[in-house]
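Morning!

This is the sequence you dropped in the shared folder:
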Amino acid sequence: QVQLVESGGGLVQAGGSLRLSCAASGIIFNVYTMAWYRQSPGKQRELVAAITGGGSTNYADSVKGRFLISRDNAKNTVYLQMNSLKPEDTAVYYCNAHMVLRDYWGQGTPVTVSS
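The structure's back. Tokens below.
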């Protein structure tokens, strides 16, 4: 059974930082591309950042230079370090594990940035 369990969300003031974690089980972690998505009320879910098993990364333009995605294959965990947070970063953040023909999602962790 595949499980992706996010943690680290919460309430933070604008300009602050949070680190999200996603612990995976039930998959061969290092062959999956891991990603963080987010969804705000009334908006579509959007890709925030992704990291391949080999460590290549890509980011949404809106978070470049502020967010950093990383992974620890020994711990089956992916992280999202979020700095200089803005109110528009407020959303539910979802962890995703992807490979060909397979996609798994976590339950989401809410992030609220107050102005």
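Headline: The chain has no helices and eleven strands.

More detail when I'm at my desk.
O.
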